[in-house]
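Render this sequence as a predicted structure.
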Amino acid sequence: MVGDRIWGNQYMSDNTVTDLRATPSHEETTDGKLVRQPPRNEEVEAALLGAILRNNRAYERIADVLRPEYFFAPEHQKIYTLIKRMIDAGQEARPTTLQHMVDADEALKSVGGSEYLYELAANVVTVINATDYANTIADLYLKRELIQLGEDTVNDAYDMDFDETAERQIERVEHRLYNLATTGEIDRGVTTLKEAAYNALVHAEEAFKRDSHVVGVTSGFRDIDNMLGGLHPSDLIILAARPAMGKTALVTTIAYNAAKAYRQFEDETGKVIEEGGKVLFFSLEMSADQLAGRILSGEAKVSGDKIRRGEIDQEEFTQIARAAQELAKAPLFIDDTPGLSITGMRQRSRRVKRQHGLHMIIVDYLQLLSGPPEKKNDNRVQEVSEITRGLKMLAKELEVPVIALSQLSRQVENREDKRPQLADLRESGSIEQDADVVSFIYRPEYYLQREHPEMRPNEPQDKYLERVQNHEQRLAESRNVAEYIIAKQRHGPVGTVELFFDNDYARFGDLDRHHGGDGF
């Protein structure tokens, strides 16, 4: 019988149980040598296919776990593909309904054709073990893929291609390992409204017990936290602006605010609650020293330009030294590796979370990242799409908010109203699509300083002076004011928050604290 090829006589005599263990990894050849064989269990594959053919409801339990390529035997891959196609189309997958397709396939005819289908279904008594069978097949597939990955890694390392550095090879292996790990993930399944409501209540209770009443990591800005509810785990937050708007200054301030606010405490039940966060800052444009200098300038209230030139007095030096001591306490980690890929960023982020803990990631800026090494191409739009998708996956994997800075296109400068819009995002619509929050920085003072009114032909003097006066009034009202524009928020409102901006210290703050010009 055809079934003897798969199960053997022992299975045919007692077909209630199928051994979930893999076939021995060594087989003896004709010359007596032992040869390693890939891990597989064709008996389990046959048992699962038979269970589905006997009762299609078994497919519902394993559809999210199993793909055709997970099967080792090529004929089993083909049969599962036909079953999947039939059931997904809303039809029954039985030996009778699949018979004509199987008999039309030469490869399947060689193993018995439709007769083999009937053998599969006839040799199954129960479908209760279908999920266990599927998990075994998926596990053995991943082991075979790991073996292939190991072989490819060894071969690539032996290849004397001097353009292919060891670091690039490591990044590529890391990316393949990550894809392999996510391939083996199983769908979480459905959640009842009761369970979801309870989880929402727990989050609300945690926010209530915090001094800031913020669910996520605090930005350090009252009005931004009110609009966003804090920076939430798994969220990708895009902060975009034209040059000189202060986007790096803002995100640097957010990073330091969150790190400075980090603390742990226990509630009355003994549960540990965390505020603020440990922050990893990927600075792809500025060095770590330059970034730290910006933070130091803002905290010490000494101009960064004066610090760089050494034009400071003893009192200012004392302020800087005192601020440096405060900076040393903040759990803020800076990675200024140039030319970093999204794969390398994921690798470094995992390491920091494992070694120190991690609550937020900041990327300055998105366009300086490169895509996965194995997906390099000349299509920059496609590469940016891969990067934004990778950042969102990173946020979900590590369960931290990821803030990524982005450039805006020059079309902003061609409009009378230069406030950014979603359409101004540069290079890829996937930035807007993948982001949970898209926000912009706009400083009207920057543009008003460069738009002094000129007298128009045949314009009366009084009209011209009126326009000049209006311009000066608008300039005065916009002095040290920046707009944080929330253009998209997947789980909340959109709107604009006004912030205070001090160009001398390159630092932002809540606006109402600084109307009197009292500084930070």
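Summary. The first helix runs from residue 3 to 6. Residues 462 and 468 are 10 Å apart (CA to CA).
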